[in-house]
Amino acid sequence: MKCAVVCVSVHHHNTEKIAAAISEVLGADLLQISDVNSGLLEQYDMIGFGSGIYFGKHHKKLFELIAGIDLNGKNVFVFSTSGTGSIKYNKKLIDALISRGADVKGSFSCKGYDTYGVLKWIGGMAKGRPNSRDIEDAKDFVTTLKMLK
Known about the structure:
By secondary structure, the chain is α/β, with parallel strands linked by helices. It is 33% helix and 26% strand. It is built from 5 helices and 6 strands. Strands 1, 2, 3, 4, 5 and 6 form a 6-stranded mixed sheet that branches. Strand 3 (46-54) and strand 4 (57-58) form a beta hairpin. The longest helix has 15 residues, at 132-146.
């Protein structure tokens, strides 16, 4: 099964760390959003989509990409990092993927160092995250996806 991981990681590269760990386990191509187009993704059997969380949802560039591609029958998964690490933030992206015909196989989230907006004035939140435990949890998550192949 040919896999890709599409990542948007802007501020502290928290999500990029998780994406790299996921890609390593899956043997997937790690793609930055700027390098992705709809034709490129057609060649993959499983695609992961992830970013940091901005005002309760994934980066807008992920939503823009998804709106322009046919994901009918594609196996996908979602991942994110945020100051709280709440998995509930993945729901909007999952809903967008389902609306494009994707078969969502799973969702992962962990804390990531967050200094966005007013948080920078108080030193941020979740400093030092993602940590080695978060990386291992991400690897465990995708190990279950590998079983779906």
